[in-house]
Amino acid sequence: MVTALRLLFLGLLAVWFFPGETRAASAVTIWPVNPVLGSAAPAAALWLENNDHHTVLLQIRVFRWTQDSTGDQYADQTEIVASPPMASVAPGVRQLIRLIRAGSMLPNAETAYRIIIDEIPTPESRQAAAKSGPQIAIQLRYSVPLFVYGTGAPTGTSAPTMASDIKEQPTLHWHVETRNGRRFLDVANTGHIHAQLSQVSLGKTTVSTGLLGYVLPGRTMEWPLAGNPGGEPLQAVVNGGLKHETIPAQQ
């Protein structure tokens, strides 16, 4: 089943100041929220639907996504192209964005990207904001992960279209590290596929009720722990699975 998610406050692009209340400038539904591009596919589809009462102008860019000791890093790239890169979407209209493979991918590997969708102010949206009375109108930024597979990548299926189609599982281990009096949960992924972690608990302590974050292949990510949680096990929903999994501690 195609999954849609209304991403209203993933990021803040710009703010127009008016004295008074705050309102979201638009509501854009994006699906799928977990697109992938299989090794044999020339392109993947991303749909944008405008649920607002005025036309929205959207800029679509694709960045290479890596991770290091400081966290997520984004860089310009030329392997994946969004077409069209700009879209004017009328109220109630669905816009197709094609994510086109324009360069060769690393063989036997998963490569991560981030699709960044920015709402651009238009005269119509400014006029609509002014007619609504005193307010702060917020321009939004939407961020969607994209995973692309080269020839021979271990996806477990020949033609995946969403991350949930990937049968391969990440290989995860964890430990708790203390630095400067603060405790951090470190999760390492030594597998070939990304790990999306949500609904995470450590022993009897809830670490995250929703999405905690991603660990890309070959990387270690850390998250601060509130209080003084201890014990085992570390449990999480991995890559949108139907049940919690127990992640083994690092030996």
From TrEMBL:
Q: Which PANTHER family match?
A: PILUS ASSEMBLY CHAPERONE, SLR1668 PROTEIN
Q: Which GO terms describe its cellular component?
A: outer membrane-bounded periplasmic space
Outline the extent of the Pili assembly chaperone N-terminal domain.
Answer: 38-148
Cited Pfam families: PapD_N
Its BP terms in the Gene Ontology are: cell wall organization
What protein name is recorded for this chain?
A: Molecular chaperone
